[in-house]
Amino acid sequence: MALFGRENQQDRARAEAMAAWINRQNVYAIASAVLGVVSLIEFGVLFLWVGGIGCGVIALRQLARADTATQRNAGHRLAWVGIVTSGISLVLATLIYFRVIGNAPR
After folding, report:
1. Deepest in the core among 30, 55, 63, 97, taking most CB within 10 A?
2. Model pLDDT for residues 15-56, shown as the tens digit of each residue
């Protein structure tokens, strides 16, 4: 899919490679990374970090016992990215909620 102009062979190969990469990843790992990054952007306000950590743990458990021939067997890094970014978001949310940061002196 070309953004501008005509699609060429290189564009098709890139799109097929990206589709193959996504099909190898664990669904929960992708969800964990997305939720973690969005939660970090929102500083934990929306409590998306709960889903990010939960999906990351589920993904790591599934990947630990995945059958390489029949299941999506990649996504360890994505799961850890989701867990780490969700954890950072949790710490930021805690600091904001308890007014440790962002509070003007009285």
Report:
1. 55
2. 899 888 888 888 999 999 999 999 989 887 788 888 999 999
**Under 8 Å CB-to-CB from 60, ≥6 apart: which residues?**
76, 79, 80, 83
Domain locations along the chain: 27-97
- Tokens 């999506």 belong to residue: 72
Does the pLDDT of residue 63 top 80, yes or no?
yes
How far apart, in whole angstroms, are the C-alpha atoms of residue 5 and residue 81? 35
Residues 6 or more apart whose CB falls under 8 angstroms from that of 50 comprise 86
Could you tell me how far CA 105 lies from the centroid of its own chain?
A: 36
